[in-house]
């Protein structure tokens, strides 16, 4: 919605693979517990192996503070508890992606698009 393109991955390894061939991803929603490669390790690989600085927002049903701390240490910007509401997701997107200039802004000095209508792409990693 709102001009976004969503890419999905069934596990953390697939998310790393997608990002390696699509480096222009604007934000990743990463489940912390997945088969094959969990969200923490996938985040470490995205940061260390790919060298990507794309914002990664963790999602988990685990309410422990230690897991959230591990996620931040792995390189995630923040963690949301599931089930996350759409307004929470939108707020995190607008906090962590840089606004893209409107194609019409050019020399006319018009303002960039607001966070509510910025086109962005997501990698949504589901269990």
Explain this structure to me?
There is one protein chain. With 127 residues, the chain is an alpha/beta fold. The chain has one domain (5-98, 115-125): 3-Layer(aba) Sandwich (Rossmann fold). It is built from 4 helices and 5 strands; from the N terminus they run βαβαβαβαβ. It has a 5-stranded parallel beta sheet with strand order 1-5-2-3-4, sandwiched between helices.
Q: Spans with pLDDT under 50 lasting ≥5 residues?
A: 101-127
CATH topology: Rossmann fold
Biggest sheet, spatial arrangement of strands = 1-5-2-3-4
Shape designation:
globular
Number of helices: 4
The quaternary state of the protein chains shown equals single chain
Describe how the helices and strands are arranged.
Elements: E1 5-9, H1 12-21, E2 27-31, H2 39-48, E3 56-60, H3 65-74, E4 78-81, H4 86-96, E5 121-125
Parallel strand pairs: 1-5, 2-3, 2-5, 3-4
Helix pairs in contact: 1-2
Quick structural overview:
By secondary structure, the chain is α/β, with parallel strands linked by helices. It has 4 helices and 5 strands. Helix content is 32%, strand content 19%.
Keywords for this structure?
single chain, 127 residues, two-component regulatory system, Response regulatory domain-containing protein, five-stranded parallel beta sheet, alpha/beta, Rossmann fold
